[in-house]
C-alpha cells in the first residue's frame, strides 16, 4: 500500500506506508514507544526524518496507520449490503470485513495490539482514532433502525468497536492462532441477538 505525498515542486515522493509501519513497530517492540524519537524511526524505517514528518503529524499517526483503511472497508461493505439483509448480519459481516486478512498484517498484529493497549499515549488517542469507524457504523444503524435514538445507535456502534477490539486482544494473547478476523466473527455472533434479524 503506497500513499503519495502532498504535491510539491519537483518529483513527488511515494511512501510505502506498510513498510514504514512494520519498521516502526519492530523498533517500538524492541525499545518501547515513549523512548524512541523521529531519528530512530528514520533509521528503523529507512525513510528520512524529513519525509516522515511530511507524511505524519505525530508518531502515533504511524502506530494507528491501519485504522483508516479498516474504516474504508467497513464503509464499503455497509454500503454494498442489500436492503433486505438483516442488520445483525450486515453489521457483523462489515466489521469482520474491516479486519485485514493480509498475512503480512496479521503477522504484525499481535505486537501492534500489545503496543496500542499498553502505551498510555496511544491509548489516550484511541477514541479520536476510532471515531470515524464508530460514526460510520452509527450512521448505518440510524438508517436501518430509524426509531432508535441517535445516542442508542452511537452506543451500539461503540459497543461493537469495543467487542471487536476485545476479540483481537484475546486472539493475540492466546497465541494468535488462525485468522484474527475469524476470532472477531465468533465474538460478534454473541451480539447478533441484540439487533433485529429482519
TrEMBL record:
What Pfam families does the entry give? TetR_C_14 (PF17754), TetR_N (PF00440)
| Domain of life from the UniProt record | Bacteria
Does the record bear Electron transport in its keywords? no
Q: Does the keyword Ribosomal protein apply?
A: no
Keywords recorded for this protein, A-Z: DNA-binding
Q: Which GO terms describe its molecular function?
A: DNA binding
Residue ranges of the annotated DNA-binding region, renumbered to this chain: 37-56
Start and end residues of each HTH tetR-type domain: 14-74
Q: What is this protein called?
A: TetR family transcriptional regulator
Q: Read off the InterPro entries from this record.
A: Homeodomain-like_sf, HTH_TetR, MftR_C
Taxonomic lineage of this organism? Bacteria, Bacillati, Actinomycetota, Actinomycetes, Mycobacteriales
